[in-house]
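Thread: Newbie trying to understand structure tokens

Hi all, I'm a second-year student working on a class project, and my supervisor (Dr. K.) asked me to get a predicted structure for one chain before our next meeting. I've only ever worked with sequences, so writing a 3D structure as a token string is new to me. If someone could post the tokens and maybe explain what I'm looking at, I'd be very grateful. Here's the chain:
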Amino acid sequence: MISAVLLLLIYIPVYSLINNDKWVFLYVCVHRMLYCYFSLSVRVVVTFEQEQETADGKSVETVRKNHVFHLVAPDHLLYKQPSIIKGRTDVVTVTPWLAPVVWEGTFNPELLDSIYHQQNISVVATVFAVGKYIMFLKDFLETAEQHFFVGFRVHIYVFTDQPNEVPQVKMAANRGVTVRAVPSSNRWQTISARRMELIQTLIEEKLQGNTDYIFCLDVDSKFHGRWGTESLSGLVAVIHPGYYWTTRSNFPYERRARSRAYIAVGEGDFYYCGGAFGGSLDEVHLLARTCRLNFEADAAEGIEAAWQEESHLNRYMWINKPSKVLSPEYLWQDFKSRNHEIQIVRFSGVVKNYAAVRPNN
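---
Reply by user tm_fold:
Sure, no problem. This is what the structure looks like when written as tokens:
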């Protein structure tokens, strides 16, 4: 398409000169100058189609993706000069595939917020409050209102088997909660495994065309600090707080080769948590759909991965590298003491008695 336009822009002036039509020549010259001006000064968004397949190679989906080639900051915005020689030296801030690893002190929140405010982005969070996990929902919603993408358009979808028990939490303008009823289960593993299916369905039925980013979060956690635009990217993973100090031979990956979540000893990058992940709508839709198909294919053969959807998520993100990795600040555990590199806890799992809240623990 672009080649055809450029060919016309060259051909028409030449044709008009040959035919001595000065008015056509003048018109086309002005048109070409305007075209060049706008093509150089306007942020370019390119849409293309890409084929993606599941971890077992059995399912292919074509995804349309919008890519913005650069971030646009407000003109004359004042902020502290960045440095490439001073900063965090106690942690790794980039993966081997050059994705940023986000820690406190590695980003400027005011700069990032100003960039994304101009884009008027919308962010969705999903949370599952099934069975006795409904007891954690009030703290989750109240602290999300205090810390999760404050000042942006946010909508939280609560999946629960007890819609009448969802607490009323006062939300700021352009922020809201929608409750979606789901069946209960006698097995917490089934509840966990169904999340990918429900996220996929939500995106297809409600979110396409009106949401930019989505994050899928555990309800038995609450926010303690900022979680904002520094976390935005195509595919976003969160490092599990229990395994970031250990070698991958100790990661609780699915080790049975029969499973589509299989990661062999000696393979894998990090251990990512299933309790917090996200990214752009298209990327999360593809992740959820792929994990769901692989989980269902496993189930048809009598296999349940070691950690249900978390195992399938880790397999998916080993093959499909996340474009941004969030440090354990973004899902800590309240019962753990902070290591020196954890300068802030942004989101954390609360202390609980699993035997009391899980139906078949």
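A couple of things are worth pointing out once you decode it. DSSP finds nine helices and 13 strands in the chain. Confidence is low (pLDDT under 50) at residues 1-18, 27-49. Feel free to ask follow-ups in this thread.
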